[in-house]
Amino acid sequence: MLDFVVAGVPAAVVVVALVEAVKAVGKIEGNRAIVVAVIVGVIVAMAAQAATIWPGFAVWWQTAVAGILLGLAACGLYDAGQAVKSKF
Description:
Blueprint: E1 5-6, E2 9-10, H1 11-26, H2 31-53, H3 55-87
């Protein structure tokens, strides 16, 4: 059975974060966003499975996912700070 945790984070959270990033960068909406979500979900699931098969890949996979999530969190924190700053 697949372990639905990627770099210590539930895979669903990883997929949502990646899909939101792709939607924002690519200006994707509607049915296209659904297609992007399915594709990202399949890629994350396949990479998670590959990480269980090849331990060397697992190290790089977890590092890459952690870096991407940290970057997305930093973007969200920056945007939140700018929103608060504009209120004052």
